[in-house]
Amino acid sequence: MKCIIVDDEAAARAITKQLCKKIETLTIAEEFENAIDAIKYLNSNSVDLIFLDIHMPTFSGFDFIQTLKNPPLIILTTSDRNFALDAFEYDCVIDYLVKPITPERFAKAVDRIKDRGVATKQEEETTTNPEETSTVGNDLYVNIDRRLVKINVPDICVIEAKGDYIKIKAEDKNYVVHSTLKKIEEKLPNHLFLKVHRSYIINTTKIVDIEDNSVLIKQDVIPVSRANRKELMQRLNLL
To answer: Strand, helix or coil at 128?
Structure first.
């Protein structure tokens, strides 16, 4: 994969370069100390992945993402823990690495660049509040910014793994929660929801279209793994 590094700190760029060199699948095309130069480069060059800092003078990482019409996959590298929820509102962001970044955590983020950048080991344990999610009737309560936010379960369309977080896409709003698919799956009613991929749970009543190894829910094309396709077909009485 061809990648670039965008970070205003020379030391941080050097560390990211060293981490990249340890992974055979990564090729560093360029590095930039500001987002403006990176945008100019991308106007005439294509890349598969960007390692992007958030806090940079004049033009932040989020400003940078918003200027890209078709952004490649992005791994955010930052010393600030406070923007993870905002970060995963962007579909191109596949992980959020907090500096200092260990080689193990870096490799884990790169491993997630499969199936359009979703996680490869989503059911691993994370340090989450045991009361992070709970279900009462048709309501799912999730812990967001130390508040229990209520989501109407039948309104949930898709739940997607995003690094150490999950993104819950409902009819009228998206939510980002620090949790795993395994934990959220335990809270959902089996007659509505099905895990169709290691990184996706879908509400089967929201399916618009089925094609080969994917389903369409609203505007999202969701991959369906071979292992889960048969169960999906049985659930829909198509076998």
So the answer is: coil
CA distance 104 to 140: 33
Q: What per-residue string of b and e applies to 131-148 under the rule 16 or more CB within 10 Å gives b?
A: ebbeeeeeebbbbbeeee
* Model confidence band, residue 127 (pLDDT cutoffs 50, 70, 90): very low
- Interatomic CA distance for residues 68 and 187, integer angstroms: 37
The pTM is what?
0.54
Q: Which residue has the tokens 């200092």?
A: 100
Q: How many residues does the chain have?
A: 239
The Cα angle at residue 203 between residues 201 and 204, in degrees rounded to 5: 110
**Which strands sit side by side in the sheet containing 193-197, from one edge to the other?**
174-177, 165-170, 156-162, 200-203, 193-197
Of 166, 73, 89, 88, the closest CA to residue 128 belongs to 166
Of 117, 122, 67, the residue nearest 92 (C-alpha): 117
Overall average pLDDT of the 173-179 stretch:
88
